[in-house]
Amino acid sequence: MTKRQLVSSMIVVMDKKILSTPRLYLREIDPEDLDFLVDLHSDPEVMKYIGPLRNAKQVERRLKSIRSGYKATPGFGIWLACKDSNTQPIGWACLKDLDQTREIEVGYRLAKQFWGKGYATELTVGLLNYGFNEIGLQEIVAVARPDNIASVRVLSKAGLVFEKMAYYYKSKVVYYRITKSEYEAASRIKK
Questions:
Q1: pTM of the model
Q2: Fold for domain 14-190?
């Protein structure tokens, strides 16, 4: 690879970067990420609270849909979460429609070797900041299965507040929400 190609390649990667947190960054998902995503979605522990395991063909179909969404709904989508120190993918995070409604949800899915390190909270807080301060959203929601204690804890730590039990993604879930004014008030208190 020539120096010019290398620089061009670096520019393309930077253009696809959505946001950075202290230890991570989010970027658009590329076809080259398929193997990582297949591993993620075929892991029974990762998918325990989400739904059935997915095979390579299913993940590839979803990857194409995700990529077409980048143009259809700029600023929203599902992005690959990578470690800032070495670009290693650890999972994905999203800011997208909640189960085909008009509500916008924050979410994440991490490979199990990255659980318990604070990454899910870091990504959620980063996406709340992005949603409120970059996109101008007035409200962001999140859902989790009630028995997924770790995710429920992440939502609470990130500042979202339990509102109700609900039914999304063909499952009973806890429904959390935060408004922009609540987020700004909590941010002022932390300073």
A1: 0.89
A2: Aminopeptidase (3.40.630)
